[in-house]
Amino acid sequence: MREGKMTSLLKKKKSSLIIQLSKANLSLFISVVHKSSTPFPLTSEIDRITRIINDHPFPEEPLEPTLLRQIPPVSLSPPFVENVLGRLFSAHSNGLKALEFFNYSIHHSQLAPSVDAFEKTLHILTRMRYFDKAWELMMDMKRSHPSLLTLKSMSIMLSKIAKFQSYEDTLEAFKRMETEVFPGKDFGADEFNVMLRAFCSEREMKEARSVFRKMHYRFPTNTKTMNILLLGFKESGDVTAMELFYHEMVRRGFNPNGMTYNIRIDAYCKKGCLGDGLRLLEEMERLHCLPTLETITTLIHGAGVARNIPKARQLFDEIPKRNLHHDTGAYNAMISSLIRSRDINSAIELMEEMDRKQIECDGITYHTMFLGTMKSSGIEGVCELYDKMTERNFVPKTRTVVMLMKFFCENQHLQQGLHLWDYLVQKGQCPHSHALDLLVTGLCSRRRLREAYRCCKQMLERGRHMSERVYQMMQRNLRQYYETDKLMELDRMISKLQSVLPQSAKKETY
Predict the structure, then answer these.
(1) DSSP string for residues in 341-409
(2) Model pTM?
(3) PPR repeat positions in this chain (predicted)?
(4) What CA–CA distances, in Å, run from 376 to 30, 144, 379?
């Protein structure tokens, strides 16, 4: 009897152990499958949520109830939130929608928000010039998640204020950062560099010099400080001023590094002075300052500007010999060089080589190829490349969208322009107002008023303003063809949008 009980007990334990091991194996299997398959369902889910947010009528209804229905809190992982915000940024979505999504993720997720998600939200708000909302967001994070406040978030804010507001406003914003956003933190060289970069990135070198003179006594300068100023002179296009500043830096005891050389090489290459760029490359090697992939990529591009394709090809082929690896940037530089020399066939071959080597084509690759195709193959070649791009589900950057829309409309291919518009909307994008201007102008000139009205309405529904020029065009045409009900609907949507969208946020930038 005792043996029977013991046998029964051992069987139960064995059965329990088997079940536990099965569960463990099942969990491991699910984990492995999830990791291996995540990119595919995750990408489609990110597309879906981005589309839902962009399609949501703004400001007719609050977004949160829709988010509650569509996004279970358990799915609000940091990577998911970051990816959706990244799509909203590239889609030129309304900043208030992005903010509402970010706030939803904070309130309903069990996990703390990531730095990347916060910075993306801040970037979207400042790009649309929602500065009051951006300051409010920073102060909220200071109270609830102070670890999210970084030098990068400070840089995002100051750069956009320097871009859209005055010199005095930028200095005041820096002071506010020091006293309100980061109180108790000792501002040093890093914070000072952020402010200098804000001016230099906007090519405001007079202001950058003024700030440097006024405030350098408060903050110790370092190599990065000098390179930021040097970069500013380079971006302003004044090579002479850049070189004068460089020699002034050296006299002060500054030791140039790889970044210093890359900046100077880029300045010469952009001016077509390839010989000066190659001279600096030799100087780098002589001083045992190893050239980076960025250095060689810059020189390949410079060879293209100088129409020296043999040198561009030599530099491109030498990349592996320098213990470096070809990347998308290096291929883009070589493709650009070929396009400048009207060798579209060799550029196409390089693009195909990228596919074979599984080197990803990016927005620059497509933009460069479209430019070359427009000049060499005309509308047929552009349409062929466009079809390949859309088959790959690639979403082009704003400048490429505007360029394509202009090309399609000017070449009487309005249907292709409409296809581009619908493709972007389907992908959850909010096409740029310049693209709408071009498309509506083309449609109205062909009396395709119904389609022009649909595109305008889609723009407004996504919380973005149409230009005054497009509105007047629609007003004139709708009245002419007695479509006053459609005009009244546009007026109602515009009025509603104006009540929540700041006047300063109407003008978009690329």
Answers:
(1) TT-HHHHHHHHHHHHHTTPPP-HHHHHHHHHHHHHHTHHHHHHHHHHHHHHTT----HHHHHHHHHHHH
(2) 0.82
(3) 222-256, 257-291, 327-361, 362-396
(4) 52, 56, 10
Give per-residue pLDDT as tens, 265-309: 999 999 999 999 999 999 999 999 999 999 999 999 999 999 999
pLDDT at position 54: 87
Residue 20 to residue 374: CA distance in whole angstroms = 64
Helix or strand run (H / E) with residue 45: helix 39-55
Contact by Cβ (8 Å): 91, 428: yes
CA distances from 104 to 72, 384, 509 (A): 11, 42, 27
Q: Vertex 125, ends 200 and 471: CA angle to 5°? A: 105
What's the pLDDT tens digit per position in 136-186? 999 999 999 999 999 999 999 999 999 999 999 999 999 999 999 998 888
Please list, in sequence order, all residues whose beta carbon lies within 8 angstroms of the beta carbon of residue 223, skipping any fewer than 6 positions away: 254, 255, 257, 260
| 215, 225 contact by CB (below 8 A) | no
What gap in Å lies between CA 13 and CA 124, rounded to an integer?
A: 58
Q: Name residues whose C-beta falls within 8 Å of residue 436's C-beta, 6 or more positions apart in sequence.
A: 455, 456, 459, 466, 467, 470
Cis amide prior to 183 (ω within 30 degrees): no
Residue 368 — φ and ψ, nearest 5°?
-65, -45
Query: What residues have CB less than 8 Å from 268, skipping those under 6 apart?
Result: 239, 274, 276, 277, 280, 302
H or E element in which residue 154 lies: helix 151-164
Residue ranges of domains in the chain: 40-149, 151-255, 432-510
Contact status, residue 411 vs residue 380, Cβ threshold 8 Å: no
Copy the structure tokens of residue 426: 């389907």
- CATH code reported for the domain at 151-255: 1.25.40
Tokens matching residue 388? 């390949």
286/39 Cα distance (integer angstroms): 46
Report the C-alpha gap between 250 and 239 in whole angstroms: 17
* Residue for token pair 């088959």: 391
Using DSSP's 3-state secondary structure scheme, residue 464 falls into coil
